[in-house]
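INFO batch 0412 | record 1 of 1 | parsing
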Amino acid sequence: MSVERCPLILGYASRRSVRAGERIDFFVSSKDSDSYNAQIVRIISPDIGPIGPAFKQFEIDAPLNGPHQGKFQPILPGSYADISGPLPIATEFAIDLLVYPTLLNSRTQVIIEISSNSGSVLEVNHSSETGLTARLSQSGEIVCTTSINLLRERMWREIRISIDPSKRIMTLNSNPISNISQMTTKPQQSTGDWKKDFLFEWHDSSIKLAARKSPLSDRHDPSSTFNGKIERLRLFSSSNPAQSQTPIAEWDFSLDIPSNQVTDIGKYHLDGTLHNMPTRGIRGSKWSGNTLSWVQEPESYAAIHFHEDDVADAKWQLSHHFQVPEELASGCYALRLSPTSGESPDFYVPFFVRPMLNKQNSKVAYLIPTTTYGAYANMNLRVTAQFNELAHGRLTVLDSTDFLLLTMPELGKSTYDVHNDGSPVLYSSMNRPVTNFRPNGRIYKFCLDLMIVDWFDSMNIGVDIITDDDIHHEGLDSLKDYTVLVTSTHPEYITHAQSDAIRGFTESGGRLMYLGGNGFYTAAEISSTDPDIVEVRRPGQDNLWRVDHTEGVFSTSGLPGGLWRNLGRSENGLVGVGFITQGFDECTFYRRNVASKDPRLSWIFEGIGFDELIGNFGILQGGAAGYEIDRHDFARGSPPQSVVVASSSNHSPLYGLMVSSILDTLPQTGDSQDPIRADMVFFETNNGGAVFSVGSIAWAGSLSHNNYDNNVSRLTLNVLQRFLDKQNF
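INFO prediction complete | emitting tokens
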């Protein structure tokens, strides 16, 4: 596929979940401002080609439907801070801050810019060619520059810039910082004179940190963004402040870490705003080595890490809005964007409609994993990682949206990627075009989750759609009126609030059907200030995107990150099975065991023979058991009353290889079962609740086989019908 076939029309929505009767907004950009057609559609099944069911999308009447003149809207990557001022300075002042560069190169990276409405600008920047440079300019004319030797990557320095109008000089100092992780180096200083006929006015000035102001708007210039940590910004009214002098403004970054605010503890309270979500809750220059949490010792985590490739919000202008009709059925919907020229593929912006408040339609809720979609949003790793072929056992096949990530790096990255400076991406946003959240293409994530939607539709089972976002914000209240909660194929990431809600649902009598694999595996958090952003921290895991144990606490909540099994809430305890391995070459089937003959459980297999292979077919690599699989294990928290009723077998050697790569631990060699397997599990909970789990991502890919007349479909229907029967088991 050629690069020219990349989508030319891109968009995103203001939210993923909306109730009937509420409004949702859309933001659209078209290359070269090309025209396009917009259409609201309801999506029942994915567009995955001839191996699956037919693509089912139905057009919905909406005022926005029809042709539109396009408008190109850029994405400006790079995080920075705005302190709008006006700063309490006149002509003489000094400013200092602590700096820790993480990617020095020939590009000029701006560390701080002070600019006034009268045209006075002080900029401190760095490049490998000019070193650390302070520059004064007036109305675009450079008046004075002074430089010192290069900063060093990953070493803290204090930088001070002093403006002395009486002597018409500017002084730049770079002083060493001694801490537990670096040696002291020599201080450096340089001074520059400016022309006598220039005066600088600063009374109406403001600050940009980690970037310079764009000449075209009040936003930043993305070509100027800084890669590195900045800590403790101070402003003095003297050009030569004494050691004991109190600054007139001091921005303490150890405060308000969960927010997008930088707080001035001085008397003027000139608080600033962070843009594009730089990383907080990370070690600073004063880290003591005595704590692993910023909550316990914020002063050790007083740094903010800025990156040139941070993208938290595309900040496009509003293009369309859709007032969801009150009578619109709960389901999966999308804004379909089609270029008028027909020269590129359609682009879909999915969203999910819930019933109106207090107008529940069904006793069955289908849980859409929006937190996981967010964690994976725009995953560059699938395209760029060197180990892709090894992990998949085949050559990587790229499609149009893969090329889109390569040609438009400004779309940003996922929490499976690393920043350009090598640090892990900890935040991922849905407030931008997302290439891998769509109803067409690879049979994974949303496409595979639509296979369950298609099964509900084909079985004439009415369900309400609910999302991770909903249960995160509303808790158990969002689930309390449902009898059965059905999961998607890969609900890997959940927040502490979501975990509480789902556990509360099963313990209060709800019935949970876990129709996936690698679910409920890793903790995530959703920003309270930016609810479209998912934060993921994986302390100590052996992979490219890990953080070390000193930075494993979420900046957005102060709660610990990592695998739920390491946080005392294993996925085994919630659904009876836990992730063991993955293999992307082929999938297999399940065999019933003796426990499945127990009359108390035989209803699961009604119409299915004991010796019948379950799911030895399917559109996802030929079987219902595989891709990513979960195993029952009492040692890891599977409830004592849980029963394994069927297990998979005959997995390829790639599954064994991936166990080693994720550093899992297999059971004792004397175990009578093959440890590499997916287990089908049932158990009861309190108050008449119950859980049924299949432990395989591939399960949904077998539902439509033989026009839905197969034992995977039959078994799923058996469980759902029994779960809707409120009698105890």
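INFO post-check: Residues 13 and 26 are 4 Å apart (CA to CA).
INFO record closed
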